[in-house]
Design goal:
The structure holds 2 protein chains of 2 kinds. By secondary structure, chain A is mainly β. Chain A has no helices and 11 strands. In chain A, strands 2, 4, 5, 6, 9, 10 and 11 form a 7-stranded mixed β-sheet that branches. Chain A has a 4-stranded antiparallel β-sheet with strand order 1-3-8-7, with no helix packed on it. Chain B is globular. Classes of the chains: A mainly beta, B mainly beta.
Chain lengths: 114, 110
């Protein structure tokens, strides 16, 4: 069975460019999470959706970040314009429901903003 | 965000040795989780703890939910080379947000 799928796996872009990260959750899961991992701050929750609806976006660092989930099988995280300090590994995770239901993580997208 | 302090930051051990790492929080959590992350991959859940005092094993791994609900430990017995990776604790305080520890990087020397 396919796990959480993220694309691209690596992204290198220049400051000021728009970046779009993509995620396909595990089929049947109705909750989706976006995390960011950096050496300085570790793994941080950015936003999560339940049944395609954003529930908590308090972790989104700035207005330059936005996330959408147009349907149950697809979500995007967009950064516009990107800055060097956005360089990190971005993970998507999905679960069946919220609370204590296990979150399954994708392989991540390593973003480098020059 | 809530602070989760994990120690040690890194460990270098000989194959066959036991490993112990712990996590402390300034806040009470209702759930403690332990994850392992390998290079180029996302974290994978190892053990989940739901009650204060709970002791749970998964093969050579054992984890406990501290009585104060502000701490947890993970032990790995008889380490093997494939145990190499970064281990993260995570806590949930009732909402749906998971707060992750800073990680313990484990190196096992054959």
């Amino acid at each position: 069975d396919a796990g959480v799928i993220q694309s691209p796996r690596h992204e290198v872009t220049e400051m000021g460019q728009e970046v779009t990260l993509r995620c396909k959750p595990i089929s049947g899961h109705n909750s989706l999470f976006w995390y960011r991992q950096t050496m300085m701050r570790g793994l941080e929750l950015l936003i999560y959706f339940n049944n395609n609806v954003p529930i908590d976006d308090s972790g989104m660092p700035e207005d330059r970040f936005s996330a959408k989930m147009p349907n149950a099988s697809f979500s995007t995280l967009k950064i516009q314009p990107s800055e060097p300090r956005d360089s990190a590994v971005y993970f998507c995770a999905s679960s069946f429901g919220l609370g204590d239901n296990e979150q399954f993580f994708g392989p991540g997208t390593r973003l480098t903003v020059l | 965000g809530q602070q989760l302090n994990q120690s040690p930051q890194s460990m270098f051990i000989q194959e066959g040795e036991d490993v112990s790492m712990n996590c402390t929080s300034s806040s009470i959590f209702n759930t403690w989780l332990w994850y392992k992350q390998e290079p180029g991959e996302g974290p994978v859940l190892l053990i989940a703890l739901y009650k204060a005092g709970e002791l749970t094993s998964n093969g050579r791994l054992t984890a406990q939910f501290g009585i104060t609900r502000k701490d947890s430990f993970l032990n790995i017995s008889a380490s093997i080379p494939s145990d190499v990776g970064i281990y993260f604790c995570a806590g949930r305080s009732g909402a749906n947000n998971l707060f992750f520890g800073t990680g313990t990087r484990l190196t096992v020397i054959p």
